[in-house]
Write a structure and sequence with these properties.
By secondary structure, the protein is mainly alpha-helical. The chain has six helices and two strands.
């Protein structure tokens, strides 16, 4: 018997903006590379000293959530190759993925705060990238909890709140 937390759920990203999704992935890949380099340097004898809270965020993002970066996105890639503006993507994930993606979102907010306060070389994400990431995380969290999918707001003619 499958536990309730591991029961599969369908998460639909409706009318996801292809170019903005790709931009978001590039941004976070750059940030994760910087984290990996900084963590290696901090472990060297006489290496840089980092605040424990910063190390925790970096280790979580480069360790526990590293596979999120490597997840294939064939529908998004095909849409990008075809020059499509939007794409619908369907995931089958364990219900617990909602909590995991929520935690990933929290860590990314902390990481961006580090960039915003000039503690990183990586610059802060653009307002549009932040809006996309917030929507992406909220879709996983809400749908894993049984909510209905909502399309990317701009695709539905709604204004985006980049804050």
């Amino acid at each position: 018997m499958v536990s309730t937390d591991d029961a599969p759920v369908t998460v639909r990203l409706l009318r996801a903006p292809v170019a903005l999704w790709a931009e978001s992935e590039i941004y976070y890949s750059d940030m994760m590379r910087e984290f990996e380099i900084v963590l290696i340097a901090s472990r060297e004898p006489g290496g840089i000293r980092l605040p424990p809270a910063l190390v925790e965020v970096m280790e979580q993002l480069t360790g526990r959530f590293a596979s999120a970066r490597a997840t294939p996105r064939p529908e998004r890639d095909a849409a990008e190759a075809a020059g499509a503006e939007f794409v619908d993507v369907v995931y089958q994930v364990p219900r617990s993925a909602g909590a995991d993606v929520g935690e990933l979102g929290r860590l990314l907010i902390e990481a961006d705060e580090m960039a915003r306060s000039s503690r990183l070389l990586t610059l802060t994400a653009s307002p549009q990238t932040w809006a996309f990431n917030r929507w992406y995380v909220e879709e996983f969290v809400r749908q894993a909890a049984g909510g209905q999918p909502r399309p990317w707001p701009e695709a539905a003619g709604e204004a985006i709140d980049p804050s």
